[in-house]
Design goal:
Order of helices and strands: HEHHEEEHHH
Shape: globular
Largest sheet: 4 strands, mixed
Helix content: 40-55%
Radius of gyration: 17 Å
Structural class: alpha+beta
Number of strands: 4
Number of helices: 6
Strand order of the largest sheet: 1-2-3-4
Strand content: 15-25%
């Protein structure tokens, strides 16, 4: 729900209907089931439809173990599902499980069942230089950065976006007991 609030705010601020954010549950189901189950196939069809109706599509990829968000931003050919560019946002170093799920999603989107000779796209290295602190929840800011960078690039403003100003861990530990 919080992810959609960020998306709706940025849509209101920038008025960019060509930049879309997919529902996290749809991406999670598609990543988990792929095309082997009917529910996965239906989610994949919805994602493919979204690819045809947007120029930039941001897919949130959620990992359960450890709990973490990463994002894939696709720049697409207008009115087509052809992927022109892939950006991968991951704010933690060494999160192999998250990268594996993101690679699975990208493979599902780029595999051609009619032509098995076509290889799926490889997930690029994370494009963001900021790395979050251990045990923080800064990965939620990655959505903001992914969406804002996509919108600014579409408006020809370049790749500049927000970065978190995390509260020092010591400050969090001192004030948390007073809040509770």
């Amino acid at each position: 729900a919080d992810l959609h609030i960020i998306y709706e705010y940025l849509q209101w601020q920038y008025m960019m209907p060509e930049v879309m954010f997919l529902k996290p549950a749809m991406v999670k189901i598609a990543t988990h089931f792929g095309t082997t189950a009917e529910v996965g196939m239906m989610c994949m069809l919805e994602i493919k439809d979204a690819m045809k109706s947007s120029e930039i599509l941001v897919l949130p990829v959620h990992c359960d173990e450890p709990m973490h968000w990463t994002f894939i931003a696709l720049r697409l050919e207008p009115e087509s599902d052809k992927i022109l560019e892939v950006k991968y946002y991951d704010w933690c170093n060494g999160m192999k499980q998250s990268a594996a799920l993101a690679q699975r999603m990208l493979s599902l989107l780029t595999i051609d069942e009619a032509n098995p000779a076509v290889q799926p796209m490889k997930l690029p290295k994370p494009c963001n230089w900021y790395r979050q602190r251990p045990a923080s929840n800064d990965c939620g800011f990655a959505l903001w950065q992914a969406l804002e960078n996509a919108m600014k690039k579409k408006r020809l403003e370049g790749d500049v976006g927000v970065l978190p100003q995390p509260v020092p861990v010591s400050y969090t530990h001192l004030t948390l007991p007073t809040i509770l």
